[in-house]
Every structure is written in structure tokens, then in C-alpha cells.
Amino acid sequence: MPSTTPQFQESLADRESWSTERCSIGRALDVVGPRSAMLLLREAYYGTTRFDDFAHRVGITESVAAGRLRALVAAGLLDRRPYQEPGRRTRHEYVLTESGAELVPTLLALMQWGDRHLQGPAGPPLALTHTDCGEPISVEIRCAAGHRLAPGELSIAPGRKRPSAAPAAPGHDTGGSTSGT
Predict the structure, then answer these.
(1) Which of 6, 47, 84, 138 could form a disulfide with 154 if both were Cys (CB 3.0 to 4.6 A apart)?
(2) Domain 7-12+21-156: which CATH number of 3.30.360.20, 3.20.20.70, 3.10.20.310, 1.10.10.10
(3) In the chain, what is the straight-line distance between the N-terminal and C-terminal CA atoms, in Å?
(4) Max mean pLDDT range (3-7, 14-18, 151-155, 156-160)
């Protein structure tokens, strides 16, 4: 089996010399870590917009749905938009933001892994295909030049500051030491 361990570069080669306190994976999981949060995002991707439908389709209580949807809106992954049906009070629907849509490959990667390793002989419950050509889709690691990579073919180097860095996730400072994941 090929290596699944990346190559650590520069100051990251000594793994004891750097901290993971600003880890991007950890920060992302702070936002989408609860199972229900990922399932709510799945439903938003599938087109669910109404509060009651989210709670029902994910199989969670209304209070859990309300808290998770509030957190996903605060994190900028969903927009909360008012709507009103004739003769009814104003309610709100939830739709993916651009930031939320950027998580779709993560959802699809989890689905692909679950299809491959957890579904058994019955096979996957859903098949995802490219609308234009009908071929199955897959999520994979590719470099900017288009080369497909195995996990062990990655190099990890210290990050570089972006000219206009995105704000830190709520509750996280932007200072600190070099981080790894």
C-alpha cells in the first residue's frame, strides 16, 4: 500500500516544533463538526429551504435544528431569508451561501467514502453523475497543474499570509504560531 503520510517541509519537518492550535481542519470542525450540521448542509444542497423540512429530513428536534441553523447562518454557510405565503405570517427559509456551497466537495467526499466503505453488498443508496455526460463523479486530490495525487504525494509547508486574509472563524484569534493541519 502506498504511503498516506505527507512530506513536511521547512520548519514543519520537526513536528514537535510547531503547534496545531490554528489548525484549519480544527476550525472547520468547530463550525460543521456536529453530525446534524453536516446533514443540514446536505439538505440545503439537496434543495431543502424550510425549517420544518430541515428538522424532519435530518431527524432532529426543532430546538436542535434551530440552534444548528442559527450557527450555520452565523458562520456564513447559510443565508436566512424571509418569505411569506398569502394569508400567513412571515417565516424564514435557509439557502446555501457561496461559502456553504464550497463545502459541497467535502460532503461528496464523505458520501463517496461512505459508499465505498460502509454500504456493503447493497451498494450506495444514491448515484451521482455529471448532468452533461452521465458519467459518475468522484472527489479526488489534484494539484493546480491537474495531476491526481495520493495522500502520500502531498508536501506540507508553512502557510503564507494572503494579501487580504479572510476573517478568522468566530471565537478564534488570528495571531499565534505556525500551525499544521
Answers:
(1) 6
(2) 1.10.10.10
(3) 23
(4) 151-155
